[in-house]
Specification:
The protein has about 160 residues and is of the alpha+beta class. It has a single domain, classed as 2-Layer Sandwich (Alpha-D-Glucose-1,6-Bisphosphate, Chain A, domain 4), CATH 3.30.530. It is built from 4 helices and 10 strands; from the N terminus they run E-H-H-E-E-E-E-E-E-E-E-E-H-H.
Length: about 160
């Protein structure tokens, strides 16, 4: 997939865990709840159906702000290699209502010596939406979550 610096954000890390364990962290709800949101935010609910058209739903409890729910749809599910989901649709490819920040997220996992090349690309509709997501703390938030995910993945 191509990268458009005007509308896309990316995170790239070397994770010291296998692609299979990273896949489990992304697709097993109980594991995802352990790492998905940067602490002290807590993911209290996750429903992940790892197949095209499956649900990608989460609820996070944000201190001082309350619950934040997100519903999405899995677009691509290649175990241990690639997961793509979006919030512009809900499960079974149903259109979602208006979104404050519509995006799609592509996660790739490539086995390397000593772990996994872990790459996330988040695509936005407009440069303004991309800037909003960056200004919200995309790199710090998704980066912190990636570190938390690595800890969980290494424990499996």
């Amino acid at each position: 997939m191509d990268f458009n610096p005007e509308t896309d954000l990316e995170l790239h890390r070397h994770i010291k865990a296998s692609p299979a364990n990273i896949w489990r962290c992304w697709t097993e709800p109980d594991l995802l709840k352990d790492w998905f949101a940067p602490k002290p935010v807590e993911t209290t609910h996750a429903r992940i159906e790892a197949f095209p058209g499956g649900a990608f739903d989460t609820v996070m409890n944000v201190p001082g702000h309350g619950e934040m729910a997100g519903s999405g749809c899995i677009l691509v599910a290649e175990p241990g290699e690639r997961l793509v989901w979006t919030n512009v649709m809900t499960a079974r490819f149903r259109p979602a209502g208006p979104q404050d920040l519509p995006f799609s997220a592509e996660i790739t996992m490539t086995a390397t010596e000593g772990g996994t090349d872990y790459h996330i690309t988040v695509r936005h509709l407009t440069p303004e939406a991309c800037k909003t997501h960056a200004d919200m703390g995309f790199h710090d938030g998704w980066g912190t979550a990636a570190s938390q995910m690595e800890t969980v993945a290494r424990s499996l």
